[in-house]
Amino acid sequence: MKKTICLISLGCPKNLVDSEKILGDLVNNGFIITAEPKDADYIIINTCAFIQPAVKESLDVINEIKKIKKKTDCKIIVFGCLSKLYRDSLSRDKDIDAVVHPDNLYQISSILKSLDFNKSYQKYISAINEFNYQLKKRPRVILTYPYAYLKITEGCNHGCSYCLIPKIRGPHKSYPEKEIIKEAKNLADFGIKEIILVGHDITSYGIDNGKKDYLPQIIEKLLPMNFKWIRLLYLRTEKISEKLIELISNNQKMCKYLDIPLQHIHPDILKKMNRPVIDYEKIIEKLRKYIPGICLRTTFIVGFPGETKKHYQFLMDFVKKIKFDRMGAFPYYREKQTSAYNLPHQVPEKEKIERLNKIMSIQKDILKNKLKKLIGENVEVLIDKKTKNQLIGRTQCDAPDIDCEVQITGNAKIGDIVNVKITKTSAYTLTGIINKK
After folding, report:
1. Ranges of the chain whose pLDDT falls below 50
2. Within this chain, do residues 156 and 255 fall inside the same structural domain, yes or no?
3. Quick check: 7 and 58 in contact, CB under 8 A?
4. Model-level pTM?
């Protein structure tokens, strides 16, 4: 009798890629997928532990699945970032059947099979060196059509003082070029319209193999493939090269969109964050000059230890002046295993939330004014989904799930890129009609 699995994927797009690969491998090994946890023999939870709310969400989901286990006697497998960071406490939980290190995604099928036959198995499945073990043809279940993420790096070398990624995912590693091209070709053959290159820092692609500024060469090999759009997530501002700028500017397939998380702008706070203290305004001016129509997205942390009202005002003035096309922010979360945890002058939680609300209110007004200028204009939109009454899509300025959406009247298929006349806008939504020309 075939066994049924349900996989719950939490966290970022990088996690989602892992989930899609796990599902593909499980299907290839004879398992049946269900979206309903109550119908599953095995429930896999791909967890996130980047910041405290992500940890809480992961633990909440685990606790909900434990309730289902009491009724169905399913097996619970915890995978991903939480399994690395909280391995001991998760391994002691009698309701959890296996805790799997995030490197071991292609071992899950054998782990599931062992759960039924080996009562003395090791509960925590530690890391194995399988990073370059993935060159074999591997199936993948795409959950995001008409777009798909292509993870090209893992881990990070930068050591930002607030960040757990190096502890969870290890140092920066570049996926083999041969594997990236092969996977991209498979996605193109599958009919993916937008491919999104993703990693903790894709501008560092190849440095672990002695290759400098190699990201443009990877992109050049993707351009002839049958993708309509190619998007880049996430980039270190100081590593954006002349060659990369030229490539984005001169190729229609390249989304004129860069996600460059700055985290802060005041030199005092950047030093405490262990981030480069450089002239970011000058870099932004250069990007806007040499990539006409570029949409710049960034993220900021407010309430970092030692952030005074003066530092915060400096950040707000920068946001008002630069007028980012898209922006996110979140309060500083004090993570025990980071060097920032012991920094003095921690900002009170109430003050962090007040600062967050204020800076996001400023950005909301900036975005509303930017979107309002699109009324009456025609924009290209990729159709992501259909509801009963309308189509939902995105412009090149909008990455899935984090930016604006376009609500459209007209007829089109999912995956079509259509010309839409914008008739109305709000803070995070555009409304329009397909222009039949």
Report:
1. 120, 131-135
2. yes
3. no
4. 0.94
Report the C-alpha gap between 375 and 424 in whole angstroms.
6
User: Are both 387 and 272 inside the same structural domain?
Assistant: no
**Residue among 274, 153, 163 nearest 204 (CA):** 153
Q: How far apart are CA 97 and CA 115, in angstroms?
A: 8
**Which residue has 């699945």 as its token pair?**
65
- Structure token pair of residue 22: 């796990």
Closest CA to 292 of 252, 243, 236: 252
Give burial (CB, 10 Å; 0-12/13-18/19+) of 225.
middle
pLDDT tens-digit profile of 102-133?
Answer: 888 888 988 888 887 655 456 766 655 554 44
Q: What is the pLDDT of residue 436?
A: 75
For the CA atoms of 101, 105, 106, 110, the dihedral, rounded to the nearest 10 degrees, stands at 60
What CA–CA distances, in Å, run from 209 to 63, 167, 173, 176?
A: 42, 21, 9, 10
Q: State the total domains in the chain.
A: 3
Alpha-carbon torsion 385, 387, 389, 392, what sign?
negative
Q: Is residue 226 domain-shared with residue 84, that is, in the same domain?
A: no
Task: Note the pLDDT of residue 42.
Answer: 96
**Tell me, what's the pLDDT at 133?**
44
C-alpha to C-alpha distance for 14 and 149, rounded to whole angstroms:
8
